[in-house]
Amino acid sequence: xxxxxxxxxxxRVFVDMDRxxxxxxxxxxxxxxxxxxxxxxxxRAGWALLPVICRQCKSAPCVDVCxxxxxxxxxxxxxxxxxFRCIGCGSCARACPFGVxxxxxxxxxxxxxxxxxxxxxxxxxxxLCADRLSEHPDAVPRCVAACPAGALVFVDARxxxxxxxxxxxxxxxxxxxxxxx
Amino acid sequence: xPGAEESRDVRSRCVxxxxxxxxxLAPSGPDRWRTAYPLTDDAGLCARGSVVGELLGHRRRILDxxxxxxxxxxxxxxxxxxxxxxxxxxxxTLTVLLDGNLPCEQLAEAVARLDAWPAGRLCLVVxxxxxxxxxxxxxxxxxxxxxxxxxxxxxxxxxxxxxxANPLCARPVxxxxxxxxRTPIAALDPAGGAVVxxxxxxxxxxxGGELAxxxxxxxxxxLNVDAPDVPSAAAAGAAxxxxxxxxxxxAAECARTDNWRAIGRLAGDLAKARGGGVAVQTNGANALxxxxxxxxxxxxxxxxxxxxxxxxxxxxxxxVVGMLGRDDVxxxxxxxxxxxxxxxxxxxxxPLALPGEYGGTYLxxxxxxxxxxxxxxxxxxxxxxxxxxxxxxxxAGAAEPxxxxxxxxxxxxxxxDAPAETPxxxxxxxxxxxxxxxxxxxxxxxxxxxxxxxxxxxxxELAMAPDDAEQAGLSNAAEVTVETDRGQLRARVRLAPxxxxxxxxxxxxxxxxxxxxxxxxxxxxHRVVAPPRPVTVSE
Lengths: 181, 539
What we know:
- The structure holds two protein chains of two kinds.
- Chain A is about 15% helix and about 20% strand.
- Chain A is α+β, with helices and mostly antiparallel strands.
- Chain B is of the alpha/beta class.
- In chain B, the strands form six sheets. Chain B has a seven-stranded mixed sheet. In chain B, strands 25-18-22-19-21-20-26 form a seven-stranded mixed sheet. A five-stranded parallel sheet of chain B has the order 10-9-8-11-12.
- In chain B, α4 (about 105-115) packs parallel to α12 (about 285-295), α5 (about 130-140) packs parallel to α11 (about 260-275) and α9 (about 210-220) packs across α10.
- At the A-B interface, α1, α5 and β8 of A face α1, α2, α7, α8 and α17 of B.
């Protein structure tokens, strides 16, 4: 079974704060592509409305706390939620230091002990559209493909400084995904 | 596996705005679809385009004709439904209110059918504010800029929230700004939309004062026009005065000003004078074609059709009741793909094909004719709007039209007299305006059925300036009642410092919001107007 020791994925989704027009296209793309269990949502940061996307933490608290081993880092280094193991306890949502894993969408419960789901107990989690990444080396997650303003980019986090990207924020659980050039 | 589905997806273009973004379709269940995105291309597809897939297999789809009798709906056959429409018309003239955002082929077919039908007449329905704005830009003779051509501009004037109207047009503007950070970007949007965030110069103007501000800006930018005193506009104009290729992006929004035609004309004149062009971000992809067809073929303007109460009206593909926010529009029959306010009000309801189920020619991306193919076929027995009009004409015994000899792509509207101008009215302390939103198309007749919208927005969002909220004793996220002389609705407050004090903003894509600022007829100028409304907001 993949473990926390697995290498993290090199590429991450970054949000270019100077380009986000708050249109919600990323959230809509995620919603419609993940069977109504969206992992990308919008949230207010001060006056700005920004996409909230999983940072694929190097040391992921959601993986550590999951009592059912549903949260794992897969072969590609992506932290994923294994559908049939998730019991919907919400531990990952509480452990996430960035509030990325949630059980509601705009105040409405989403896939949270929903009777029409297969298990009835699931939490949505961004897997960077792993089905696409496995299909093509240059594939991008759907939120990135949908972003009309070019605010979301899927790039190698280590190359960010070389590309003139200044990653803002000082939290250490993972790379901060807000950037400015 | 979704990836595998995407590899065999069907590709076409979204026709919910003039950007015409490429999109695909992938199955998501029996008779269910979802929008698919290219694997490696990040060209973009806004929230509106993402909705298209769900709409094509929507559970609320109207699949059978029905007649409203004694408070209940009775299913009828297609021929019986057409006969019921004609019986309702009797000896009266039958006015077809046809969605203007259909492909050029369907517009031409409908014009030909109604020409050959003496008892029928045609009205092409686009958003009234879009129609006025397009008439202005057409009359100005300014070039229409393609989206990728915007990156070559050395200055931008953004009128209305063009980034919400067409999110894709933000990319070349921001590309240019990144390459040349000193590129001036002037924004004129009293509702403080997304454009304000990126503006180097914000024009501070109250709703209704847009034309005066634009005039001051144009004068400062070198155009020979009377210049009222609007300091922020003059500063923005001075910043644009050195531009050699000015990109003017325009989006007409409801409940702002009655002067969209004059704004379009002046904006076009300014763009021409500064070596650039205009990019008009309308609701729907083919509003420009509809405006041109109306001018060329003499179809009846919407205001004239509504003012005439001696006829019987049939709405085909347009939610005229929701769009105008008026329940007093008498519509005998309505054809639509999904339920809307017009189908609720009509006595006879007919099914209709959705965009994505038919193809044709649209004026996309800088008014260039573009062929758009269908994504899928419509459900069995469901017609396109033009085919429905043809069936109605045949049932009425109208002659078959002569084969069309002119080009189906209409030509430009010729310049006319100076458009009418309405002086800015004095407003109450708080007025309600509506704003475009990237997730909505028009009044939301189609996109309002998207499950994502209803999940995200259980309550509409009312944006207001923090000072106004404080005065009213309201906090962020408070649930409030928004009330005008036309009605009321419940909303959730969002404190928005970018919104001008004295202004409250609701999304334009909600029929309930449209009803609060319901449109008025201006028969003297053959137009429909929707000025800002005084409003009260209370918990």
